[in-house]
Design a protein that fits this description.
- This protein is an alpha/beta fold and 333 residues long.
- 32% of the residues lie in helices and 24% in strands.
- It has 2 domains: 169 residues, Peroxisomal Thiolase, Chain A, domain 1 (3-Layer(aba) Sandwich); 151 residues, Thiolase/Chalcone synthase (Peroxisomal Thiolase, Chain A, domain 1, 3-Layer(aba) Sandwich), CATH 3.40.47.
- It has a 5-stranded mixed β-sheet with strand order 1-7-6-4-5, sandwiched between helices. The chain has a 4-stranded mixed β-sheet with strand order 8-13-12-11, sandwiched between helices.
- A hairpin with a 3-residue loop joins strand 12 and strand 13.
- The longest helix is centred in the last third of the chain and has 23 residues.
């Protein structure tokens, strides 16, 4: 059976920055409150006219260049997003056209767990022998669905995209994945309007129901419970333990969640990656953006063992354990 390995990685964050000082001018909050409760100092925000697919295309181009291949070599494109350009068609189709690909393309929506879900699909397709090379993108423009009069949510989110090229290989790169969902938690985190349950109408817009609502405390408790569980399951499926990990890369939602998870997994904090201070929560982009940050800054080397763990609306969760097979000087896995 062929196995799947990460052969290329790339990411993109939009240029515009939204700092805590900016938010202080918009809602009743303070830099001190935001830093203490979340660890976030600034986030990036899509420009006027920019959409999720634009972020995805930039990240995908970087990943293709890193893998040393062009679009002709891609057998399947999966975009993980919960903030599509439009409900119809899928954002993946817009990305496919922009990249000049001809392969099948579709979206996966598992909110902030979306990248790990899409990774599982890509790995499984490669292991089945149906494809040799799969482009997996996590991209979200969360700020388009955030109410910038709601201080409980507007401080948390940013925009971005990250992508990996998965390629068939003799040596397994992606060792084990564990996914989960609990739809009874659907009300915890949602965008009430804009779908078939509550189509957009003037009264819906007046009630600001097109924006994300969240029970912050409930999400926090869910996250610190489910992340260690998912990580342990993926480690078990990979025949590894937390002590074997070079890096734990959790979904970048909140520094307090990241620290609590590190403690529960008995991981030294210096081996638990965080860039949430500079990005905020970029949803499905968060994990590949974090991985690319580690890789491009030279802190990830061939042979390193990495666990990535996501959680998000649905509620959903997912963890993957990856043997990093790339070195920055080589284009080959
Ligand atoms: N500035 C100042 N005060 C605030 C702010 C703010 N931005 N937001 C809330 N407060 C106030 C509240 O009104 C409350 O005041 P009160 O005591 O007078 O009622 C007080 O601060 C405490 O509010 P809590 O909600 O209890 O604050 P908490 O410590 O739980 O922190 C937070 C809130 C940061 C949202 C936290 O609960 C959290 O991070 N939860 C997880 C959120 C998350 O990760 N979401 C993304 C999930 S992934 C996905 O799928 C999108």
């Amino acid at each position: 059976m062929p196995r799947a390995a990460i052969a290329g990685i790339g990411s993109y964050l939009p240029e515009d920055r939204l700092t805590n000082a900016d938010l202080e001018r918009m809602v009743d909050t303070s830099d001190e409150w935001i830093l203490t409760r979340t660890g976030i100092a600034e986030r990036r925000v899509v420009a006027a006219g920019e959409a999720t697919s634009d972020l995805a295309v930039r990240a995908a181009r970087a990943a293709l260049a890193d893998a040393g291949i062009d679009g002709a070599g891609i057998d399947l494109l999966i975009v993980a997003t919960s903030t599509p350009d439009t409900l119809i068609p899928a954002t993946a189709c817009r990305v496919q056209a922009e990249l000049g690909l001809t392969c099948p393309a579709f979206d996966v929506n598992a909110a902030c767990s979306g990248f790990v879900y899409a990774l599982q699909v890509g790995v499984t397709v490669i292991e089945s022998g149906r494809a040799r090379t799969v482009l997996v993108v996590g991209a979200d423009a969360m700020t388009r669905f955030i109410d910038f009069t709601d201080r409980g949510t507007c401080i948390l989110f940013g925009d971005g995209a990250g992508a990996v090229v998965l390629r068939a290989s003799e040596e397994a790169g992606v060792l084990g994945i564990a996914l989960g969902a609990d739809g009874t938690g659907a009300e915890m985190l949602k965008v009430p309007a804009g779908g078939s349950a509550l189509p957009l109408a003037q009264q819906v817009l007046d009630a600001r129901q097109q924006y994300l609502t969240m029970s912050g405390n409930e999400v926090f408790k869910f996250a610190v419970r489910v992340i260690p569980k998912a990580a342990r399951e993926a480690l078990k499926a990979s025949g590894a333990t937390a002590a074997d990990l070079t890096w734990l890369v959790p979904h970048q939602a909140n520094q307090r969640i990241i620290d609590t998870v590190a403690d529960r997994l008995h991981m030294p904090h210096e081996r638990v990656f965080s860039n949430v201070a500079a990005t905020g929560n970029t949803s499905a982009a968060s994990i590949p953006v974090a991985l690319d940050d580690l890789y491009t800054s030279g802190r990830l080397s061939a042979g390193d063992l990495v666990a990535v763990v996501g959680f998000g609306a649905g509620v959903t969760w997912g963890a993957a354990v990856v043997r990093w097979t790339k070195s920055r000087s080589s284009e080959e896995t």
